[in-house]
């Protein structure tokens, strides 16, 4: 599903390139649950952003479902991204002006899905996540765990093949975190490919693979 | 999608209440102001456009080229009418003669003298052919009703005023100026208010054959009166330039044999310039110069721009706060155009709300528009043009205000946006914001300077030494027919019996007026001089009544005809004579008259508005021109004295309606347009300052939030409150000083040319400019002060803890 070849990313600092990622080669198959680990500044988030097509690499090739993402135009890339990728953040990143319902609905709007269809899909998702009673509340009225639940619901609404999560449990207490990780496990069983960045060994254990990053290189994979 | 846009738009407006409010207040005031100005400008531009042949109608006007200057006259000598018809058969001509201050008497059964109406304007002697040129709607009758002498056509409102209903007017008779009996045989629909040819009492032109003299209608090539106009309708194929060439030859043929001291030429003046050309007299109630209309339009555009600037400034400032939302939306799959659409629709919602508010403001203010513009008519807000204007303002403002913020926001890179690291966008946003603030303050300062200059000039005018006494002089308008004249001396005696009356003078014209009676003349048996002199015909009490001062010699002795003359200082100077005593005993001839001795020189007084130079003037006696009665009255018991005067009038002239004005009110009317412009400047300078302060307040409130941490750190490090206030006010002060240097040349140029309209004007001193900069800095500091002080005295621990 995903193939990275010789991916490098650097910034120019004082005329010299400072590498964030250096020569990353990586293959992830459909249905895998991969955890990326590593200390702060090791390039985890950057790698996730490149995988999620939110950021470009300076060098290297990125194939996503046999499409050469690195050489695609913005528009085509955005098309692939909209259809196949969902994102979950540590800080949830819900839109404060929108209700729970509307937050979940937003990605569908950007895919130009019709109102009736949208209603049905959102209703299903709300049912599934058991947040019917909260659908008209605004994000600030929810607890952190609930907010992240909404964030995941929103990431899944467009039925993505790939779910990317940047420390999804970082802001949650351990019980809430466990619930989220159980949910991820469940989703993975249903066929969603998941790549998560995490600090926690325990959370990384939920995945099938762990990739360890250090100073922009893959240290080891297991 | 759109519904979703508007929903989020509404929520974000509600969430950022203060900013939305500032935007909506600024925009709605801006839109209302420019909408009002649009209505005024549009109304002025619409004059006579309802005429179906608007683009083919012309007036045959006259210019006189003297040695040094050219004078223009909307009139033409009367015999030109026949000559034009003979020599330009392809053109349709129609003539009209206007009469001012005519009295129309409507005979009543019981009341012997009838009902008297003074018609200041709207009375015309008109040829049936004029209606080939100008189209009017006839309720009954037709242009043929004006074929025979002693016929009159009334417009609907005048007929109703005279007879109750217009139907009752038909076939009735009225008496014009107690001399001519006229039969009503036609009714016109009222002329629209936006016409420079408002007809109310239309008398058949042929009636003039018998009474032309009383209306200054002389059938000679020597006299040109602006009261006699010839209008022309050109056939579609004929060009104005070709006719003008023909008229040049026509003028040579007819005027050269007259051997006057000027070269007289006729030419066509298009109807489309009637309302805007101040060189020509107008039959309407005012003429508006195109430059005034341009000023109004520019002010309108500026005010809207300022409101847009506020919007852009606040939106870009807020965009830092919104970067997170934009980032999330991008991660959720929104592309740039979708985000752009969303932010634009937010702008559209704010603009929409502002437009509704603006319509409300305009609706409430519209009835007061007559104070800033010469529009007496009740204008309607909901016309097609206005609605088109509102919609286009909406679109333009949305684009202007929304474009930049939408571009900035939609451009954000989602990753950096989510991390709240909007460094790059911030820098460019700030410099644009500075530019916009400079623009705002430039506009406000230009308007402040314009306002103070205009106010000072108008004060200067009202306090100017006029050379005569304008207070407490009552002017009665009368007629100079032989019966009235014979009663004059008894009338005067009776008036002088009234305790409040100090002196009484009969004359043709008060000292200062817009009267254009001037003539060629010769001095001391020499050939005609190269310039014209104005004439005033007055009795011996003129000086005393109006408080004019004699420089040397004496007033002409009382006489029914011309015998002796008095001249003004300016005339002495223009003749190149240093010592006024020299002219005493010399002779002067006006026109082709006899020579008359000069017996006195009067000290200079302002003969017309202060826009013009003092005219060389000759004052002499001639009873037949004494239409005017000037009465100097004591200011105590004014009302009683006026009543007593009216009683005496009615006793002597029961057949004439009593009409009086105070002289100083007449003089104020000279400056009506200037007063309006100065009021306009006051209002709009106020609005401009208000709008820019709103924007400034918004920016500072934003800055206060942004700088909370910085202020906290500085305070912990020991910064004083004063130094913190500087942190906030320094930048704005610099921006204001920069905009000051831009506004100085603009305002100087603008007001310099405005002041040049006046011969008597104030100097454009540096104080006007200093006032502008000092007041704008003061206003800005006050605006910034509250928020800045609040931020500066806040507890630093609190500010830092929130991080």
UniProtKB/TrEMBL annotation, chain A:
Listed PANTHER family: CELL DIVISION ATP-BINDING PROTEIN FTSE (PTHR42798:SF6), LIPOPROTEIN-RELEASING SYSTEM ATP-BINDING PROTEIN LOLD (PTHR42798)
Lineage: Bacteria, Pseudomonadati, Bacteroidota, Chitinophagia, Chitinophagales
Keyword Transport: yes
Protein name per its UniProtKB record: ABC transporter ATP-binding protein
Molecular function GO terms recorded: ATP binding
Species name: Niastella soli
Keywords: ATP-binding, Nucleotide-binding, Translocase, Transport
Family: Belongs to the ABC transporter superfamily.
CDD domains, per database record: ABC_MJ0796_LolCDE_FtsE
Keyword match Secreted: no
SUPFAM superfamilies: P-loop containing nucleoside triphosphate hydrolases (SSF52540)
Domain of life assignment: Bacteria
Domain ABC transporter: 2-222
UniProtKB/TrEMBL annotation, chain B:
Origin superkingdom: Bacteria
Domain ABC3 transporter permease C-terminal: 298-414, 683-796
Cross-referenced InterPro entries: ABC3_permease_C (IPR003838), MacB_PCD (IPR025857), Macrolide_Exporter_MacB (IPR050250)
Transmembrane segments: 21-43, 293-318, 339-366, 386-409, 436-455, 679-705, 732-752, 764-784
Keyword terms: Cell membrane, Membrane, Transmembrane, Transmembrane helix
Topological type in the membrane: Multi-pass membrane protein
Primary localization: membrane
Subcellular location: Cell membrane
Occurrences of domain MacB-like periplasmic core (ranges): 20-245, 485-611
Protein's recorded name: ABC transporter permease
Organism: Niastella soli
